Structure prediction request, 610 residues.
Amino acid sequence: MLRALLLTTAAAVIAPLSAHALTPDEPADPLDEIVVTATRLPAIAQQTPGARAIDRETIDRRGAVFAADILSDLPGLSVVRSGAFGGVAQVRIRGAGPGKTLVLVDGAPVNDPAEVNGAFDFGGLDLADVERIEVLSGPQSSLWGSDAIGGVIAFTTRQTDGLDLDLEAGAFDTRRGRLAVGTVSEDRALGAWASHVTSGGVSAADARNGNTEDDGLTSTTIGARGRYVVSPALSLDGSLRWTGAEVDLDGYPAPAFTLADTPDRQMSEQWSGVARLSLSALGLDHQFSVAAHELDRETVSDFPSAFDASRQAWRWQAEGTARGVDFVLGAEREDTEGRLSTGLTGALGTTSAFATARFEPVERLSLTGALRHDATDDFGSRTTGRLSGAFEAGAGVILSAAWGTGFKAPSISQAVCDFCFAPPPWPELVPETAEGWEAAIGWRSADRRLEGRATLYRLNVEDQISYVAGRYVNVAETTTDGVELEGRARLGGGFDLTLAYGWTDARDETGGGRLLRVPEHAGSATLGWSGERLSAALTVRAESDQADSDGFATVMRDGFVTANLAGSYDLTGAVTVTARIENLTDEAYQQVFGYGEPGRSGYVGFRLRY
Prediction:
């Protein structure tokens, strides 16, 4: 059955491409200008160092289901996933630890306050309701405060006008569906959606080590989003998102205590939401918002655990222009609470003020500055800043550079010294700090069909918190030097090409050696094609060897090259058939040492837009 499914999928995707290759080339469409908004002041990505965006069209063409499936396409991002189909997935930006990436959903911070480092788990973030992903690499604390040392990843959910229905089925008894309804007009919008994914999965522990128990996933996401314009000067908007998931896991059973099949599983439930009032008054555009996030997580195993945490953030910001200077200023208050498996509880709070401004002192030169002061309730105050500039040098060349600082306050687990076995008194923790710079040269052809950018950067992190000898201490210092290359091209004949490559030299300056789970070389290439009714994309992704851990010592995880093929065909203006093949060459590989990934697998579905 699977073999027939794969052959059908490949034929549906590849055969029309061969036919089209015989037709004359058509004029290529110009590349779109990409604008990012996570910069507080909307900015053109090509002029903003470290800024990138993934739109809904790209997500659909790639056939990406979860956030972890597509973020690794971007240079400088390392995605580590401990098991397919819902296994814990964390992102390292430019070598910084996973707790140093701030994650936003519709502006609401959703990092896990109960996780040891405060990191977000991307493994279960379903992309079915996501319209756009923005990534800002490099220290962004001057914009967003703590947790943004490595960067920021912001997800924006979709607005639905009419009825959307997506269904898909395929390998490993996987089934996926989404239903959304809504209405959109100039002065109001209201929509709701529900998505569900279930799969029998594969063994989380690598099957090549004799592990045969399938570890499945069941996940449901329900959400709503609305907007209402009361008058030209006053509007309201908000969103709400709930996810419940159950994931099968593998563990480290006695007596060998090596990764192997176990009946472990994890249940989680989380919701996030934001409500925002926008008001034009006193010559400024004001936004008043409140965001909330709650999470309950329980693991059933020989070493069971349960966590729950909550976060609330209140924010005011005002945007305006004065004497040719665009600016944003504002204030925030954030409170987090957590109850840990050991029974310990903790609460953290931060009060902040920030300002960002952009101006053009001369023609074709844009300068941006940001300054922020964060006063934590327990760990003192920090002031962070960022300066960046972009110069249009002519002939399509854009030169840009940025310098910034960042900080990260200790997490709740670190603050209360969860699972600390060393006798007190424990060391007094201080926030981690960072400094980074980057310089980039970009180019776009006169006909706007070709563009590329090369970025050189360095990121230093000091006072990094590590768990040493039964307690948390500020001991580590890390440095990452890197190069990021990226390009896009409209090739004619309906073809387009996207390329990305990252060289990442991430080092532990305190203990020596490379940082774990950061490959030195990683890259991706996506060749897409779009016709009148058919579109397809072939993505090849590669990673070099990387230092990893088997739970006891440092080991090397082998590099790999894998490929995915996805396509869609419009039966009518409202109905589209979709097909995709994951791991096209049936590569046996690991993203994290000891955890296997699925072999070649195929999926077929359809989309209805009415």
